[in-house]
Amino acid sequence: MAPSSIPSAPGSQPQLGASGIAKGRKYRSLKEIMKVAKRVVAAENVEECGGGGGNCYSRVACEQCGSGERDDELMLCDRCDRGYHMLCLRPIVARIPIGPWFCPACSDDNNRPLKSFTQKKIVEFFRIQKCGESTGKCASPQDAKKRRRRSIVFHKKRRRLLPYISSEDPVRKLVQMRSLASALTALSMEFSNELTYAPGMATKLSNQAMYEDGGMQVLPKEDIETLELCRAMYGRGECPPLIVTFDSCEGYTVEADSPIKDMTFIAEYTGDVDFILNREQDDCDSMMTLLLATDPSKSLVVCPDKRGNIARFINGINNYTPEGRKKQNVKCVRYCVNGECRVLLVATRDISKGERLYYDYNGYEQEYPTHNFV
Questions:
Q1: What's the pTM value of the predicted model, to 2 decimals?
Q2: CA 239 to chain centroid
Q3: Which of left, alpha, beta for 210 (phi over 0: left; psi -120 to 50: alpha)?
Q4: What percent of the chain has a predicted confidence (pLDDT) above 90?
């Protein structure tokens, strides 16, 4: 028998069923309610939306330039709903980020204090080892000079990599490493001077130079020795003479803290290794091509979003303009090192103290749109 829909007598209390719902009361569906509900405009001033509750977002203008044009490049803050053009932001945004985005005024990054590092914390952060703790023999700067001299004598026609010369002043060296540690901490990153093969990503067996489409140039034996020497120096706390600073236009950037000679090894591009197909929707703006395989499913990228080194903060140039190309003083080259793909950053000319480091993000591939770079 169907329940009665007759309302209760005035002043009487409705009878409740076992579920706590009044017996005999008929409730309207949500569809019926929405038919008669009044339209609500989510704005403080209705007139700003055209007077009749129109589309407010069509009237959003960039807070920086005041223009509402190029709406495809206009991003809205998920906290204050203010709009900003991608190219008007400093640092600029190369592509629309995936997930929530906050404007400079609402971003916690601008107000986040940089962590202060003591000398002991620096040693722990970079996992610096003393000479006695290392299994190999500590090479002195004099040994490095002898090695370079031998390479020059026997290979005069070929340009060889030079190991960087670390600062002799221990106080200045501490300042350099502290700047890198502060920048990594601000981005919630760990220091890593090697490629990382994390679970769920590409394995080390996937990083094979023989998969490269068209082949990859092989790093000579003498340059491999220089690479290993620089890695051993970093492990002892002898870092390259570089300092990480923050610029309001370019974000984090790297400057030379002392003169650097042409063909000096700067750093290796490190981070998590993953397949390109897994990162097609990734909004990380610092991914670096590691392997371009004949089979696209085997192509790899380096992703320094969780782990990395100072290469993460060296900025790319706008290689679409002559002015941008003039700033380039570092080159990015992919090499085959003992059968494995590696990305090295090398000085292309003499770099003076205080000069910022820039490199062509694409190298010779010309795939990434660098016209948005500052």
A1: 0.65
A2: 21
A3: alpha
A4: 39
